[in-house]
Amino acid sequence: MRKNIWLCAGLFMIFTTMSGQDKKGGISPEMLQEIKLSYKATATDRAIQNAVTHNEINKLAINYRNKNNFDTYFSHKVNSKGITNQKSSGRCWLFTGLNVFRSRIIADYNLKDFQFSHSYPFFWDQLEKSNLFLQGIIDTREKPMDDKMVEWLFKNPLSDGGQFTGVADILTKYGAVPANIMIETFGSENTRQMANLLQLKLKEFGLNIRDASVGGATAADLQKQKTEMLGVIYRMLVLMLGEPPATFTWTLADAKGNPASTKEYTPLSFYREFIGADLKNGYVMLMNDPGREYYKLYEIDFDRHTYDGKNWTYVNLPVEDIKEIAIQSIKDSTMMYFSCDVGKFLDRERGLLDINNFDYESLMGTTFGMNKEQRIRTFASGSSHAMTLMAVDLDKNRKPVKWMVENSWGPGANSGHLIMTDKWFDEYMFRLVVEKKYITDKVREILKQSPVRLPAWDPMFVEEE
Question: What is the mean pLDDT of the chain?
Answer without folding.
Answer: 93
